[in-house]
Each structure stands twice: as structure tokens, then as C-alpha cells.
Amino acid sequence: MKLTNGIKILLADDEPHIVQFLELGLKNEGYEVCSAPDGSAALDLALEFRPHLAILDVMMPEMDGFEVVERLRETGENIGVIMLTAKDEVEDRVRGLRLGADDYMIKPFAFDELLARIQARLRNQFPDLLGEVVHGPFRIDDRRKEIVYRNQVMELSPTEYELLKFIVLNHGIVLSKATILDRVWGYDFGGEENIVEVYIRSLRDKLGDKEHKLIRTLRGVGYRVDLQ
Predict the structure, then answer these.
(1) Nearest Cα to 122, choosing from 163, 86, 79?
(2) Could you give the CA distance from residue 165 to residue 150 in angstroms, rounded to a whole number?
(3) Is the separation of the CB atoms in 53 and 102 below 8 Å?
(4) Are 117 and 132 a contacting pair, CB within 8 Å?
(5) Cβ–Cβ < 8 Å for 166, 138
(6) How many whole angstroms separate alpha carbon 150 and alpha carbon 128?
(7) Where along the chain do the CATH 3.40.50.2300 domains lie?
(8) Where's the DNA-binding part (predicted)?
(9) Where do you find CATH 1.10.10.10 in the chain?
(10) Torsional sign, CA 37, 38, 41, 46
(11) Minimal CA–CA distance to 150: which of 102, 106, 208?
(12) What's the predicted TM-score (pTM) here?
């Protein structure tokens, strides 16, 4: 049995080929999936299906993704939300996040990246759902707030733990300083982006990553974890 068995995902998109593609892929990964062709149907289905995670297209008939996520948050249900948008507009992303979305992806996107973001969201929002997770040389146990690297328990501050967990769970994805600040420190953090550099330097020291082969810097873009 896969660790994903029993985890429910709601898909809402008015493009049938996208729904079919995602539904097939997610079911192959072991998720339980329900889909809706518009926002109104998605909201009704969410109340009945009780998903752990909803993947919502922004532009849908009947009710758009913004209204769906707003209505979902009003119910008080603990549902992770990833929004899909065909437009790389900052205003749309900010609006969705402010209404309660947890993440967003720009179409077209790689399915493997969507899987990584789903895992990260589930790990952050439902830490007891999957138990511990292993990525390459890392073993992350969110219940114990413990990260083991190459069979050694790391000595980490709470912020170092959250930062390392976030970048490892999103391995292979380029993460900007702004994204890291938002997800690790929170949207209300009033400090400078340079704090990310300080913590990344500390993590590299503790990981013995002197040549930056594990946590790579992409100048002017951000950081990416490359697992060995």
C-alpha cells in the first residue's frame, strides 16, 4: 500500500483534457480523486467529499477559483489549496494567496512539480498523515520535528528546521528568497531578504556542503536543492 492511500484530492478545472490527465496521474500515485467541471460544482463536492487538498483552476464558469477558495475558507474545513492559472500575473497570485490559497502553479506545468508541491502542502498541513518522509539522504519526521541526514540527526533551531524541511520537500524546484520568506517566516515578516542567505549559509555548514552542490545558488533567481 502506498503512503498516499486514503488521501483525498479535489480537482476543479473546466478543461476536460487537463482534468483527465491530472486525475489519471494522481490516481496512479495512490490518491483518491474527485473532479468538478466548474467552481459551483467544486464547492458542493468539497462539502461532500471532504478532501485533504483542492487543486483549483482560477478561470472557471459558474464560480471562479477565487470565490471557491474564499467560500472554502469560510467553512472552516482544513483543506490545502493549490491554484492553477494560465496567466503569470502577480495580482492574481497575490489575490489568491490573500483569499486563502496555499500555493499556485502557472500553466503549463510539469506533473512531477505538481506532485512535489502536493507532498509539501500535505506535509506542512497534515504532518501526521504520511508519517516520516524520505528524500535522498534526508529523513524528515515532522511529528518529532527531526531531520536525519546521512543517518545523523541534525542539530537545528526551529527556523533552520522549517527552512531545511521546506527546501528539501521542494527539491528540484527553484525557490526565490521571497517565496522562502513567505513560506518559512510568514507573510507578516518585516525583516530583510538577506536573512535567508544567513540561514542558508548556516545549513550548508551543518550539512558539510562547502561546494554548494546540495543547496545550489542560482544567482538572481534563488536556491535549489539537488539530491544526490
Answers:
(1) 79
(2) 15
(3) no
(4) no
(5) no
(6) 23
(7) 8-125
(8) 130-227
(9) 133-225
(10) positive
(11) 208
(12) 0.58
CA 41 to chain centre: 24
Write out the chain's pLDDT in tens, 228 residues. Answer: 345 657 899 999 999 999 999 999 999 888 899 999 999 999 999 989 999 999 999 999 889 999 999 999 998 888 999 999 887 778 888 888 888 899 989 988 899 899 989 988 887 788 667 667 788 899 888 778 899 999 999 999 999 999 999 999 889 999 999 889 988 887 666 667 789 999 999 999 999 999 999 999 999 899 999 986
Cβ proximity of 96 and 104 under 8 Å:
yes
Domain at 133-225: CATH code: 1.10.10.10
Q: What are the CA-CA distances from residue 24 to residues 1, 7, 67, 205, 207 (Å)?
A: 18, 15, 26, 42, 38
Instruction: Give the strand pairing for 152-153 and 146-149.
Output: antiparallel
Which residue in this structure is represented by grid cell 497570485? 93
Beta-carbon-side half-sphere exposure of residue 144 (alpha carbons within 13 Å): 12
Matching residue, cell 545549513:
203
C-alpha cell at 15: 478543461
Residue showing cell 461532500: 48
All cell numbers assigned to 57: 483552476
Who contacts 50 (Cβ-Cβ below 8 Å, separation ≥6)? 8, 77
Distance between first and last Cα of the chain? 26
Q: Which residue has the cell 542567505?
A: 197
**Nearest alpha carbon to residue 52 among 26, 15, 14:** 26
